[in-house]
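Standup notes
- HV: blocked on the assembly model, inputs below
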Amino acid sequence: QSVLTQPPSASGTPGQRVTISCSGSSSNIGSNTVNWYRQLPGTAPKLLIYSNNQRPSGVPDRFSGSKSGTSASLAISGLQSEDEADYYCAAWDDSLNGVVFGGGTKLTVL
Amino acid sequence: EVQLVQSGAEVKKPGESLKISCKGSGYSFTNYWIGWVRQMPGKGLEWMGIIYPGDSDTRYSPSFQGQVTILVDKSISTAYLQWSSLKASDTAMYYCAASSSPLGWFDPWGQGTLVTVAS
C-alpha cells in the first residue's frame, strides 16, 4: 500500500480534460512540495511537474499541477493519444525521512 | 546533454552478489544527489535511497536499509547499487535519477537496469 493515494486508473477521450488526484498527509504533501512523473510503456519515468505546479522546459502547458492542504492534482487538457501512460505523484515524507510515491494512475485515451 | 547511463541487464541466482552502475555525464556530477528507485514487475515506483557524490552522504528508505548498499566513485562520475546476497524478490527494474536535494525532484532518470534473480 503506497503512502500517497492515487486512483489506479483514469480515462478520457481525445481533446477532453482529465485530472488525477494524489492524497497524502501532513508529513508529506501537507509540508512538502509535490512532483509528478510520467512513465510511457516500457520506458523510464520522466519528470512532468515539479514543486507543485512548475513545468520543466519541453513539457507543454496542457499539463498543470496544483496542491491544496494534503492533496495534489495533475490536470491534462486537450488529451492526446500519446498521453496514454502511467502517472505518479511523489513527495518527501518528514516522518519516513524519504521520498514517497503514489501507487500510480494508468491513463487510457479512449 | 545531461544524462545518466546505467549498466546492462543482469541474471543472477539467489545468494549471489551484484553491483549495478549509473554513470553521469554533461553536468557537475559531484553537485547533484543520485537516487535509486525500484519498480517490481507490474508495480509502482519505490524510493530506495540517495547519495551525494560530493561527500558520499547517504540516506536509505527504512524499507531498504540493510538490504542494499549505495556507493559512489566520484572520480569516474558513477554511482552504484549493491547487493551482497540476492533474493528472488529482488527481481525488478532499478532506476537511478539525479536530484538537487534529497527532498527535490528527480531529473533526469537513467534508462533502468533489469535485475532477474532466479534459480
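- HV (later): unblocked. The interface with chain B takes residues 2, 32-33, 35, 37, 44-47, 50-51, 56, 86, 88, 90, 92, 96-104 of chain A (CB under 8 Å). Residues 38 and 87 of chain A are 5 Å apart (CA to CA).
- Next: hand off to the docking folks.
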